[in-house]
Design a protein that fits this description.
Helix content: 55-70%
Number of strands: 2
Order of helices and strands: HHEHHHHHHHHHHHHHEHHHHHHHHHH
Strand order of the largest sheet: 1-2
Distance between the termini: 35 Å
Radius of gyration: 22 Å
Number of helices: 25
Number of domains: 1
Length: 521
């Protein structure tokens, strides 16, 4: 094995724009709009499912999606300015919140309400209260630096499978969803691969590789128009409802129900209601989103040609993410915030990891959330189109995680056992828990304490969370002292502290000279 003590910070090849460099304004705006289009997938799918389960109307769904996009724009801007400062989109489409929200929805006190609209409002208030209380977990662990202290147990060996599971753990959003409408999903998948990989060196306009930079902006309209033609021609007229819901472009009902103008504001659904059980259940989702976001930050730092975020920066990012969950609770966006994994993958696909691009995209989120009709047009894109993109982007994030193994000794049987066990259990355990998910029985753990069921089911249904537990436990208990070099610690340890590497200050210093008032610790 080569001496990894003196290995440089290996950079990914072909990345043309890093964290602190910015593309021209016109290109940056197009890249930002591409980020906005991509984050619409889960930002529409998960809230739509939740609102439907709550008994809300199509108008309620449109209003919730607009609120979620508005808060996502604010959270993304805060995270890129004052949090980790990495080019990450903070969205509200995390499946981690499904278990606790399902527990709240099925609460007997809410189910007794006969009027559907009143039941929806009361359920929304209960979710808001749970999010507000649960946000304290990330705020406390972040700003107290406890999460940064815990990150001392991380290593390249442990982070490789965890970051890999951030991408691989979302496989159910890929081809299984694409398969619901293969006639638009397969063409989308092939078109994106063809343009972004096989035609990436073709430059029909000036020196800009448009097929490499804008595969989403080019492919989505083409396949979307194709889907509109199939819908208008009656191709799905006699198909099952599941096929029609996945393939048709006129089933979302977002355009007709969305208001022309709506400015989201705190407590728009009324004052939140608080319940200890609801709050404890929601805390599990906040913990899971914290783990998933940590893995996404590690991947984003590689794709932005930055150093791994030091403990102080990681804690700062988690603290601001807690503020984001608090805003979700105050505004009533029905689900909590987490880093958008697909947008992290887009950094690698376009080979541009610019902070400015993501900040401009937050402006698009806020703008189109206020002008509801215009935003609803883009939000009505059939989900199999996004699923085709996820097949590429989630796989790319998984491979970024695996790339951390270059700093470890892959001839060490100890390392191979930890990697293999973490990956296998990280996929197998959540799959085991998820197979017990039914509308009547929400998960494997099924005691009389609903909050306890939701808490454990949420934790063990998350591949990155299970992977982190296994990786940290094994990596810090098996032959630790003898395996420092094999684990990649000589390369990793200098990035733990803010001043451990001179590039940390370049990447992660706060703007407006705020480091004078908030010095790194």
């Amino acid at each position: 094995m080569a001496d990894i003590t003196h290995l440089p910070m290996e950079q990914l090849q072909d990345l043309e724009c890093c964290l602190d460099s910015n593309p021209p304004w016109a290109e940056a705006i197009l890249l930002a709009f591409q980020n906005y289009i991509l984050m619409l997938g889960t930002s529409v799918m998960i809230p739509s499912w939740i609102v439907h389960a709550m008994g809300g109307s199509d108008g309620d769904k449109a209003r919730v999606i607009q609120t979620l996009l508005f808060v996502a724009g604010v959270n993304t801007l805060l995270q890129t300015l004052f949090g980790t400062r990495l080019p990450t989109v903070v969205g509200g489409g995390s499946s981690a919140y499904i278990y606790p929200i399902a527990y709240i929805i099925t609460d007997s006190s809410l189910q007794q309400i006969s009027d559907p609209n009143e039941r929806f409002i009361q359920t929304m208030r209960a979710i808001q209260g749970a999010l507000i209380v649960a946000s304290s977990i990330q705020i406390i662990l972040g700003y107290s630096q406890i999460w940064g202290l815990f990150s001392r147990f991380f290593s390249p060996l442990g982070m490789a499978p965890v970051v890999g599971l951030v991408g691989l753990g979302l496989f159910q959003r890929g081809f299984p969803v694409l398969g619901d409408c293969v006639e638009i999903g397969i063409p989308m998948l092939l078109l994106v691969i063809g343009l972004s990989q096989y035609l990436k060196h073709v430059r029909p306009f000036r020196d800009i590789p448009i097929f490499e930079r804008f595969p989403v902006l080019i492919c989505v309209p083409i396949v979307w128009i194709y889907a509109v033609i199939l819908t208008a021609s009656g191709a799905y007229r006699h198909k099952p409802d599941t096929t029609q819901n996945s393939c048709r472009t006129d089933r979302a009902n977002l355009i007709s129900t969305a208001p022309w103008f709506m400015f989201p504001y705190p407590f728009q659904w009324g004052p939140p209601t608080f319940s200890a059980g609801h709050s404890f259940a929601m805390m599990s989702a906040v913990i899971v989103s914290m783990v998933e976001s940590t893995g996404a930050y590690m991947a984003a730092s590689r794709l932005a040609i930055a150093t791994p975020p030091p403990a102080y920066v990681l804690s700062r990012g988690i603290g601001w993410q807690g503020i984001g969950v608090l805003l979700d609770g105050l505004y009533g966006s029905v689900t909590g915030s987490t880093v958008s994994v697909e947008n992290v993958g887009l950094l690698g696909l376009t080979r541009v990891g610019s902070r400015r691009v993501v900040q401009i995209s937050s402006g698009f989120m806020i703008f189109f959330s206020i002008l509801g009709k215009f935003g609803a047009v883009f939000a009505s894109i059939p989900f199999p189109i996004f699923a085709a993109l996820y097949c590429i982007l989630f796989g790319l994030v998984a491979s970024i995680g695996i790339s951390f193994l270059q700093f470890t000794n892959l001839n060490s049987m100890r390392n191979l056992i930890i990697i293999g066990l973490t990956l296998f259990l990280g996929i197998s355990v959540p799959q085991f828990f998820n197979q017990y998910w039914t509308p009547s029985r929400h998960g494997l753990v099924h005691t009389n304490a609903g909050w306890f069921n939701a808490f454990l089911n949420t934790l063990f249904s998350s591949p990155p969370t299970v992977g982190l537990i296994v990786a940290v436990l094994l990596d810090n208990t098996l032959e630790v002292e003898r395996s420092k070099k094999d684990r990649g610690m000589p390369w990793w340890v200098k990035f733990r502290t803010f001043k451990g590497d001179n590039r940390n200050e370049e990447f992660y210093t706060l703007p407006f000279n705020l480091n004078r008032f908030f010095p790194p610790t």
